[in-house]
Amino acid sequence: MVSHKFFSFSLSIGLVAMSFLATTPISSAELEEIEQRGKLIVAVKDNLRPLGFRGEDGNLQGLEIDIARHLAEELLGDPNAVVLQPVTNLDRLNVVLNGKVDLTIARVSFTESRARLVDLSEYYYLDGTGLVTKDASITELEDVATRKIAVIKDSSTIPVVKDALPSSKLVGVDSYEEALSLLEKGGADAFAADKTVLAGWVQEYPQYRLLSARLSGEALCVVIPKGLQYTRLHRKVNEAIARWQAEGWLAERAAAWGLP
């Protein structure tokens, strides 16, 4: 009889505790840690003009650097309360998964496979496949319909170009440097790649033009750790991006960095 009463009492306490946990909002310990630390740690690119690159003075700059600093101002009240950590493409998600950074802002596009590993914010820029050329006879997409187009080997650009320009002749290259050399020698009439990358290309090589056509759409997002404890951080990032979109700040900064 005593054990039965003890079991009933324990069960009641357990149910009350579960009810309390279910109705108590889960606060983001991670955001609290960032606030206590006083610094936001963000993985960025340092070699991808105009998103994240080093200027002549050696300092990091670009659209994604602006976003990182603006987020630090949103979360901590100071645009300089940010640690910018350069990262390779292969490690963009890993540094978040391993807890080495708070966020990654390094030209990460939304995909379902990535969304299973990490949380991805609202998009801050719509990227996509574009084309550059210095051939004056090429002004529209139709002008390269049957021409030679350089593409990075094994890249996601290849199926996009094949779908949009099925009669074009694709020429594989191993790097952007090889693509430039091929174009300069007349081995290709245009080069297809991400428009953000190509925007930096025409800034560095002004004899080239970026065609206005976008062959695909890729939403660039902030990478956030996955988990209930990061809910508040995720919400704050999304709210900031939505407001910047509405106020025109993101469009203004993109234009300032020469992004289409």
Q: How would you portray this structure in words?
A:
The chain has 260 residues and is an alpha/beta fold. It folds into two domains: 29-126 and 220-256, 3-Layer(aba) Sandwich (D-Maltodextrin-Binding Protein, domain 2); 129-210, D-Maltodextrin-Binding Protein, domain 2 (3-Layer(aba) Sandwich). It has helices spanning 2-23, 29-37, 63-76, 94-97, 112-115, 157-164, 176-184, 195-204, 231-247, 249-256; strands at residues 40-44, 47-48, 52-54, 60-61, 82-86, 103-109, 119-120, 125-127, 129-133, 148-152, 169-173, 190-194, 209-210, 218-224. Strands 1, 5, 6, 7, 8 and 14 form a six-stranded mixed β-sheet that branches. It has a five-stranded mixed β-sheet with strand order 11-10-12-9-13, with helices on both faces. Strands 2-3-4 form a three-stranded antiparallel β-sheet, covered by helices on one side. The chain is elongated.
Question: How do you describe this structure in short?
Answer:
The protein is α/β, with parallel strands linked by helices. It has helices at residues 2-23, 29-37, 63-76, 94-97, 112-115, 157-164, 176-184, 195-204, 231-247, 249-256, and strands at 40-44, 47-48, 52-54, 60-61, 82-86, 103-109, 119-120, 125-127, 129-133, 148-152, 169-173, 190-194, 209-210, 218-224.
